[in-house]
Write a structure and sequence with these properties.
Largest sheet: 3 strands, antiparallel
Number of strands: 3
Shape: globular
Structural class: alpha+beta
Strand content: 5-15%
Radius of gyration: 17 Å
Distance between the termini: 70 Å
Length: 160
């Protein structure tokens, strides 16, 4: 009986994030923009990030079209990565990926509401839906890191 109530609570939280997604929309002053799609089901996400000079995520927005799982997951992701440095956001993304693949995650609480999507592991076809926003985040942050390193190398070579 208690498990059924817990499942209903998780379902309600997921539906709430899907129907009323957090941080949904467009950022005009985004420092990083990414678009990704899931060719299997047609989900598409556009992600915009604002990073400060210390590479901490100051703001994040997403838009696009997707299923309930994709939208809810992106909403949950935005909640947990705001205020995080790139390294921590990438770590959270990795933990989420492990979670939805049915693996144990050490810091489950750090994922916030996204931890409720662990049940997706029972539905392999939905894993790509759940991870789409997170993969877009990873791509954007890794690309940003590469650009920062490239710019630093360019500046160092100019000094010589």
């Amino acid at each position: 009986m208690a498990l059924s109530r817990l499942d209903n609570l998780y379902r309600q939280v997921i539906l709430d994030h899907s129907s009323h997604p957090h941080h949904h929309g467009v950022l005009d002053e985004a420092s990083t923009q990414i678009e990704m799609n899931n060719p299997t089901c047609g989900d598409v996400i556009q992600l915009q990030l604002v990073l400060d000079e210390d590479d901490v995520i100051q703001d994040i927005r997403f838009s696009g079209s997707g299923c309930s799982i994709s939208t809810a997951s992106a909403s949950m992701m935005t909640d947990v990565v705001i205020g995080q440095p790139i390294s921590k956001a990438l770590e959270l993304s990795h933990q989420f990926s492990e979670l939805v693949q049915g693996k144990d995650v050490a810091e489950l609480d750090a994922l916030g509401d996204a931890a409720m999507l662990g049940g997706v592991a029972k539905f392999p076809a939905r894993i790509k839906c759940a991870t789409l926003g997170w993969k877009a985040l990873e791509k954007g942050l890794i690309d940003k890191q590469a650009t920062t390193v490239e710019q630093a190398s360019h500046c160092d070579s100019e000094k010589e």
